[in-house]
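Researcher: Re-running this chain for the archive, since the previous output was lost when a drive failed. Same request as before.
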Amino acid sequence: MTGLPFLCVAAALLLVVARGAIPPPDEAARMARFVLHNCDWGALATLSAQEGLRGQPFANIFSLSDGPPGPLGGSGVPYLYLTDMEISVQDLEINSNASLTVSLAQTPYCKKHKYDPQNPLCAHIIFCGSIVKVNDSEAGLAKKALFSRHPEMESWPKDHNWFFAKFNITNIWVLDYFGGLKIVTPEEYYSVKP
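Model: Regenerated structure tokens:
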């Protein structure tokens, strides 16, 4: 029984090592890329178009991926697999603007360090922008990115008319240390590797 906790800690450390060391706080663009690439889901906030909630913020969880796992797999583009049947997607059909929050709280990193998800050291990023369907030339990249991390998606019901989309980033905020949010431009973000 004493070996089980050791194995859990060892597995968590291997996961962090396999995914690369966390960037230092003075590299906000790299931190943003690191957080997105090491996370499998995020909270997408839309402006609701639903009766009784119209115009109100509405957040929902979505699986995402910027590429296959591993240090060289991330493009920085958050891809999603969506259906018009989903309530948030119905909101996006009226207004494609959204924000996306992704946090290292979903990885072993914050638990290992005993960081509460709200602790700035448990880094999270907030993207603002819009959701757009990917064109045919980008669909293969989106499919590889998503299905490599979320293989269950391939078996989701075909009659739901799933489609690949991406988060078109216009603004980025990073909270990874004390002292407030850091602003990163999309140009800075895409010019670095996680």
